[in-house]
Amino acid sequence: MHFVVMGVSGSGKSTVALRVAERLGLPHAEADAFHPESNIAKMSSGVPLTDEDRMPWLRSLAQWIEEHERRGETTVVACSALKRSYRDVLRSGAPGRVEFIHLDGSTELIGRRLRERAGHFMPAGLLASQAATLEPLEQDEAGIVIDVEPSPEEIIDLAVRFIDGRIADLSDGPAGSALR
Ligand SMILES: Nc1ncnc2c1ncn2[C@@H]1O[C@H](COP(=O)(O)OP(=O)(O)OP(=O)(O)O)[C@@H](O)[C@H]1O
Ligand SMILES: O=C(O)[C@H](O)[C@@H](O)[C@H](O)[C@H](O)CO
């Protein structure tokens, strides 16, 4: 299984995904590290990425998922995954085995956290475009939504419980097919 912690810039994806992966001892990918220099330069200068900018980046993440799937590993990924079509690309890495943990909150709260964050290329000014681009999970998309107001520890606990639950559900399934 592959669990993608998604949401707009500043929602806490990097913080939560890293610590969840550490707690569960799972391989972890940070989508920021998969961007080509040109994307980083664009965002740093305050210009939102386009679908064309994002597609090769999403495909490289899908490939990372696919490689781990082939090795039978469960992973945790931090990636904004703002649109359903972007999530489709990520799902293509391991069809039926990619689920999303959407960190959701008000633009006001997330904006405050972004303005207080230091040493990151992403300017707080891009939050409005991130929020406008966001397509929340639809009914048929596997995953959960977690509110970002509580402390990181509480959010991490909820995410860990969700992942543990999903892995347990699958290992109870026919012939323990998904215990891996
Ligand atoms: N639950 C929380 N409560 C308080 N502060 C938080 C919480 N989660 C994250 N933060 C802080 O908010 C800021 C944004 O978090 P983080 O960098 O993890 O977000 P992100 O979604 O990965 O952002 P980006 O997509 O821009 O990389 C950080 O300074 C982080 O320490
Ligand atoms: O799709 C996007 O616009 C990007 O993924 C951004 O969300 C940034 O990578 C990230 O949020 C900043 O760290």
Automatic annotation (TrEMBL):
<dbReference type="GO" id="GO:0046316">
    <property type="term" value="F:gluconokinase activity"/>
</dbReference>
<dbReference type="Pfam" id="PF13671">
    <property type="entry name" value="AAA_33"/>
</dbReference>
<dbReference type="InterPro" id="IPR027417">
    <property type="entry name" value="P-loop_NTPase"/>
</dbReference>
<keyword id="KW-0067">ATP-binding</keyword>
<keyword id="KW-0311">Gluconate utilization</keyword>
<keyword id="KW-0808">Transferase</keyword>
<dbReference type="GO" id="GO:0005524">
    <property type="term" value="F:ATP binding"/>
</dbReference>
<comment type="similarity">
    <text>Belongs to the gluconokinase GntK/GntV family.</text>
</comment>
<protein>
    <recommendedName>
        <fullName>Gluconokinase</fullName>
        <ecNumber>2.7.1.12</ecNumber>
    </recommendedName>
</protein>
<keyword id="KW-0547">Nucleotide-binding</keyword>
<dbReference type="GO" id="GO:0005737">
    <property type="term" value="C:cytoplasm"/>
</dbReference>
<dbReference type="InterPro" id="IPR006001">
    <property type="entry name" value="Therm_gnt_kin"/>
</dbReference>
<dbReference type="GO" id="GO:0019521">
    <property type="term" value="P:D-gluconate metabolic process"/>
</dbReference>
<keyword id="KW-0418">Kinase</keyword>
<comment type="pathway">
    <text>Carbohydrate acid metabolism.</text>
</comment>
